[in-house]
Each structure stands twice: as structure tokens, then as C-alpha cells.
Amino acid sequence: MTDDLPFPALLNCWKHHAGWVRARVERAAREGEAAVAELPREMLVVGTRLMDFYTGALAPAEIAEDIFAHLDARGAREFAALSEWLAGSDGYVVLEVRDGSRWAVRLGPEAGRYVHLHPARRSVHTLRVHANALRTAALVVAHAGRLEAAVSLKLANEVRARYLALEPMRELCADGGVGAVLAALEGH
Length: 188
Prior knowledge:
The chain is built from 8 helices and 6 strands. By secondary structure, the protein is α+β, with helices and mostly antiparallel strands. The protein is elongated.
């Protein structure tokens, strides 16, 4: 999902990388209302389920390089070797990178980016979030940046109605909800 992600790594940064999302929504805010209004379409790749969202400091390329080092050490960086290793490990393995976070490695399509990365559940620097909480928080940050406004429940509900056709919230829940994602996107 990023231009700088080394081949053959595959990482859906919208779903799994707070730093990447933060940079993307800040860019949209700088570019204006039309760019912010385009974000919901881009975020369709987030899906509708729960996901693990990496909140650490490593860039997607750094995570991929650390994973590649593990695969190289096992002789499993090429598709056939990785496929064989994963087949003997229930279809995935979990590897740790330099900041202590753990990443699940699955097999992607042979002809493409086949080292498919996901943050591991209950890993350090990882938050379990709902898709709509992620969408809402990303759009709140983009919209607030564009308006140079403070993040608030009122703004979150305006964003949910305007861009996502979602019901209003009663609070910015901090436990895996919009408030937690907002904190991650603000770098806290």
C-alpha cells in the first residue's frame, strides 16, 4: 500500500499503520476539502471488521526490512521456501522486529507481493480497533487539520454524518474506540 514498501512485502497501511495514516490525512488536510472528501473512498480497503493497528515508530519499509532479515536467516524469502515454511505453521508465522512489536507473516499471491504482513494480536505498539473507529478518527484528524480546529465529540459526529453516513457517538471512547485511534494518530 505504500510506494516505498520494498518488494515483495504487502502491508495494508490504511488498516495497520498509524504513522502512515497520520501522514496521509495530514497531506489531505493541507490539500483542502476535495482531498479530505476523497479519503472515504481510499479507506474502503479498511473493510468492516476489527483489526490490529500498529502505533509504533517504525516506518512500513523498516518493518518489512526486519521481516526480510528473519526470512533470509531461515532461507525463506523466496516464494517457494516461504510457502513451504508457512504450510507447516498453520499458514502464518509471527516474527518480532526491532521495536519489540510482533508481525504475522502470511502468504500473498505468488506473482505479486507475497510477504503479507499484519501486526500480531496483543503485540506491543498495537491497538485493536473497529473499522468505523479508524475511519472516523482519520477523517476527524484530516477535517480538524483543514479547519485548524480542535478535535471534539461534536466534530467527530459532524464527520461521521458528512463523510461516512454513520450515527452519532455519545463519547470518544478511549478503549479501542475513536478516542484511542485519535490518540494513536496524534502520536500519543
